[in-house]
Amino acid sequence: MTAIRPAAAGEIPAVGRLIAESFDHLPQNRSLVPDETDRLPVMTDYFTFLSASAPEGGKIDVIEGPSGELVAAAVWFDRTREQPEIPAYEQRLGVLAGRYLPHFQALDEVFDKHHPEEPHWHLAFLAVRPGLQSAGLGSALMRHTHDRLGVPAYLEATNDDNIRLYERHGYTRMSPFDIRLPDDTPFFRMWRP
Q1: Domain range holding 57?
Q2: Is residue 133 within 8 Å of residue 84, measured between CB atoms?
Q3: N or C, where is the chain less crowded by C-beta within 10 Å?
Q4: What CATH number should be reported for the domain holding residue 102?
Q5: CDD domains this protein is in (predicted)?
């Protein structure tokens, strides 16, 4: 079950759905989309939207379960080079976020302000299907890319469990470590030299 392969173009919606389902319990998702009935559909669209730009500006690695469904995914962006612009980003974000657009704009602002300048690979999303978390799938996906990088890696962690996982894989806490959305919801900046 830990065979890792690149995601096919037709799997991007499944990757977005997997990330949304895996992150659904996080306070960061609740901050972006407070209404529980809207959260999963909006976040699925959001993660699908961002993941769709990864094949051109980075990569997506996935692990399949026994019946062929995606059970884990890592979405990386290559920040050792200029990232391609996402066409009509603001307009498309507005359509998918709807009334939550100000929350997503605040997230973009916080992330842009605190993103490192040094060339690196950015682990934007590491998702494992609920019920399979803590089974080593996320670690396998990280090792798969870390072993090939040859440059630093960066990510924004969401909680203490994530922080411990990333520290086991060589990530260290950056300064400032915690960055916050306007409602004080934190993300935690980490760097792997």
Answers
A1: 4-192
A2: no
A3: C
A4: 3.40.630.30
A5: NAT_SF
Tokens encoding 143: 């090792």
Task: Give Cα separations from 147 to 35, 140, 152 (angstroms).
Answer: 40, 11, 11
The predicted structure's pLDDT at residue 181: 96
Would you give the distance in Å from CA 74 to the centre of its chain? 7
Mean pLDDT estimate for the chain: 95
What's the Cα-to-Cα distance from 183 to each of 2, 30, 33, 103, 189, rounded to whole Å? 38, 11, 12, 9, 18
- Structure tokens, 190: 């980490």
How many whole angstroms from its chain centre is CA 33? 16
Measure the CA–CA gap between 154 and 142, rounded to whole angstroms. Answer: 12
Cα 17 to chain center, whole Å? 12
pLDDT value at 105 more than 80: yes
